[in-house]
Amino acid sequence: MNTFSIAIHGGAGTIVKEDMTAELEEAYLQGLKEALEAGYAVLEQEGEAVNAVKAALAVLEDNILFNAGRGSVFTKKGVQEMDAAIMDGSDLSAGAVAGVRNVRNPIELAMEVMRNSNHVFLSGKGANDFAIKQGIKLEPEEYFYSQFRYDQWKALRDSDNYSLDHTNHQIEELLKDKKFGTVGAVACDSKGNIAAATSTGGMTNKKYGRVGDSPIIGCGTYANNKTCAISCTGHGELFIRGVAAYDVSCLVEYKGLSLQEAMNEVVHHKLMAIGGEGGMIGIDAQGNYAMVFNSAGMYRAAKKSDGTCEVDIYK
Ligand code: ASP
User: Phi and psi dihedrals of 253, rounded to 5?
Assistant: First the structure.
């Protein structure tokens, strides 16, 4: 049996201990542990990597602390528009959605696109129509509301600024107890198949149907058994321009770098060179994982069948 393992993230950015209360820190760690265990349980029962990443993400989407599903950030118009993607490294099948509303678990909708549509990427109203047709669980607006995200948006809504959960120097003062939160998972199952998934509310005050890197295959999410599975978090525009997730895969495939080396190269050199703050988690088909970020912190956790287990926030 192959070593199986899972890694998850809950967003990267200016996450520093000084800004955190003990209760909030505990709540984040607890949220990460619950999601990690949900994904790991699937792998332990010899489930597929793709089901493990979906299970972990659904738990994070349901947790109001993270910017995905419930607790997603507000757009310029004061609503939540969510993006998600999932990819199966065993056959390169993938499903993604962008700008969906009222969908309780966007990752389930992305999985549905992968499994039961002839397409890879659905957006906006069409994606919502598909959710209704497939019987995906919907929730009213209030379900997604969180006071913190609302206050965060109120501080920006009269401006043209948009902000990552992560870092926003202009409104740093207003966001003393900043929350972070795009969520992602990568897993390697006992058969040596790997998968990646990412889900997000995107950026506060985003407009014109802005879509980030998370649902774009090759940018925020990618999986290929031959190389690695990657889920990114950070300033999406830069991760799109850097084709970040696929770039890691290319460095492994064509340059022979290890997963860790390839992720270091992309996160610390290539993304940094264009101002791309954030991080990513990755896994390979031998069950090795890495979690790399160029920001002050990244909510992250990982567990491996050899007994390794870690849950961390800061550098
Ligand atoms: N990458 C996401 C986006 O740009 C945001 C994040 O990771 O927090 O939509």
Answer: -70, -45
